[in-house]
Amino acid sequence: MPVFARADGLIDIKSLSLAEIEAALTGLGSEKFRALQVYKWLWQRGVHSFDEMTNVAKAVRAVLVERYYISFLDVAAVQKSGDGTHKFLWLTEDGHRIESVMIPDDGRNTLCVSTQVGCAMACTFCLTGDLGLRRHLRPSEIANQPLQVREALDATYRITNVVMMGMGEPLHNLDNLLPALEIYLDEQGLNFSHRKITVSTVGLVPQLQRLAEALPVNVAVSLNATTEEQRRLVMPITRKYSMEALLEACRTLPLKATKRITFEYVMMAGFNDSMADAQRLVRLMRGIKSKVNLIPYNENPDRDIRRPADSVVRAFQGHLVKHGLQASVRVTRGRDISAACGQLGKTDPTKALVEGQKIAAIRIRREGEGYDTSRFVLDDIV
Ligand code: SF4
């Protein structure tokens, strides 16, 4: 894994894999088995200090403190939607804002995770794309999101599913995403099943193949059009990887027999919601183990794009189903807190509802940081 060190020279121990912690500890004269103890304290117990690792010998802890630190995202704010959706606004160590969204739905709690600060893909319908790419998130920053949401919310909101569909294009940051996913999937780490993790992409074809070869997670492709010209209008990446090349890659992707690729289709009124589009979509899906997720556009003041009428969405879905496709319509969640699809990165912190006490308590527990709860005054993250 890429190793990250802070300005003070201390290394982010969460940027090390289990094997790397083993190598580091044995290099410092410690027993190999200590590494697994440390790793579990980091990713299963989520400790904030080495002193909390009570089954690790004091001498080993002392060595760790001298060389490493335990990284966390700063919880800047939590907004709760009327529909139970929670949006977390985090601050990275270098002051960037990123977001994660927890969506409770029908017995499932899905966490939507960010993989970059901003995004370079510039899909025209997406507000996150307006930010441009500021930087890739580190593996520890990608893996800290579920760890810290687990810590912040009670058992009612136990995370059952993870979707890499927050800020950023996950496969643009594949070098950091893969080690992060190893932590998600590791029984000794965050311990998610591969069946419960979905990675979304606009269609970076070589990286998609690399991901499928490396790990058995679910894949979602953001399609949003039924012709090359139409897709180029809203998804500039189509100029680099044509829709045809993308769909061909999907046909041949080395997926487990039980897996289907989800095709996300943001429906925009008068643009891609006609019956001709529905017919083309049926043809495009031929030969691909697919399911289609229709996402009626989330209208917002920054875009002149309209959401199709419900009757249009139903007719479109009906055509897909009639022709043998598995097709669902995504219910919009968290729109009142700008947590819906394509809205991340636009949080107005002055309007954020802060569940301050609970989150502040977590931060105060961080040993030695002298954490000041006045940080919950949102002005300093504007
Ligand atoms: S839709 Fe996804 S890939 Fe496209 S700009 Fe938004 S965050 Fe980036």
Protein described:
By secondary structure, this protein is α/β, with parallel strands linked by helices. It has 2 domains: 1-71, DNA polymerase, domain 1 (Orthogonal Bundle); 93-337, TIM Barrel (Alpha-Beta Barrel). Helix content is 31%, strand content 18%. The chain has 11 helices and 14 strands. The protein has a 10-stranded mixed sheet with strand order 3-4-5-6-9-10-11-12-13-14. Strands 1-2 form a two-stranded parallel sheet. It has a two-stranded antiparallel sheet with strand order 7-8. A hairpin with a 2-residue loop joins strand 5 (97-105) and strand 6 (108-112). Helix 1 crosses helix 2, helix 4 (139-152) packs across helix 5 and helix 9 packs parallel to helix 10 (310-322). The longest helix is centred in the middle third of the chain and has 14 residues, at 139-152. It is elongated and about 70 Å long. The two termini are 32 Å apart. Bound molecules: iron/sulfur cluster. Residues 119, 121-123, 126, 128-129, 167-169, 202, 342 line the site of iron/sulfur cluster. The site of iron/sulfur cluster has 12 residues, from loops.
Task: List the keywords.
two-stranded parallel sheet, TIM Barrel, alpha/beta, disordered C terminus, elongated, single chain, ten-stranded mixed sheet, DNA polymerase, domain 1, 382 residues, 31% helix
